[in-house]
Amino acid sequence: MKKSNVVAFWGFTLAFALVMAVSYQGISNAADATVIKIWDFSVKTEATAAGTSLKIDPQVVKIPKDGIVVWVNTAYFSEVKVIFEEAKRCADLVSNPRDFVTNTESNCFVTTFMPYGATSSLVFPEPGVFKYKVQSQDGALTTEGTIEVAK
Q1: pTM for this model (two decimals)
Q2: Regarding predicted confidence, which is higher, 15 or 142?
Q3: CA atoms of 111 and 141, how far apart (whole Å)
Q4: In the predicted model, what is the mean pLDDT of residues 107-124?
Q5: Of 20, 25, 111, 126, which one has the greatest count of Cβ atoms within 10 A?
Q6: How many domains does one find in the chain?
């Protein structure tokens, strides 16, 4: 066998193995995650000259058991945190928290403040309804959301 044929064979084999390794998705992948976008926008009304509101999209999320939720902060003007006020219940019923901690003073399950572009995530292995709020760093802006985990 010619040397060029051997090199081509091993090159093809390596490329094929690389494609297979990259395309392996395992048990769960990012495509299975539900993304909640946190954003801010300016509001102008007759009562105020201008202000900023904090929104989440979608506000109500319905996911299957073992569903993944990822919060993404796209609020350019504010760092934000996600707060579950039923800390014990949430800490007991979720898994793989990314940037969530239990705040013993306020009895909340809460993220650190997330700057623009940052993410936090949770896996919900148990069915139930979980209410949370998102709050700006100065506390002036808040919005609420719900996660419904199917039985």
Answers
A1: 0.70
A2: 142
A3: 16
A4: 88
A5: 111
A6: 1
Torsion of CA 124, 107, 140, 98, to 10 degrees: -40
The H or E element spanning position 39 is strand 34-43
| Residue 5 within a domain | no
Q: How far apart are CA 75 and CA 16, in angstroms?
A: 42
* CATH classification of the domain holding 100: 2.60.40.420
pLDDT at 134 over 90: yes
Helices (H), the chain: 3-23, 87-93
Judge contact between 78 and 136, C-beta under 8 A: yes
How many CB atoms sit inside 10 A of residue 7's CB?
Answer: 10
Q: What does the pLDDT read at residue 27? A: 45
Could you list the residue range(s) of the whole structural domain that residue 80 is in?
30-149
Q: How many CB atoms within 10 Å of residue 43?
A: 10
Residue, of 60 and 96, whose pLDDT is higher: 60
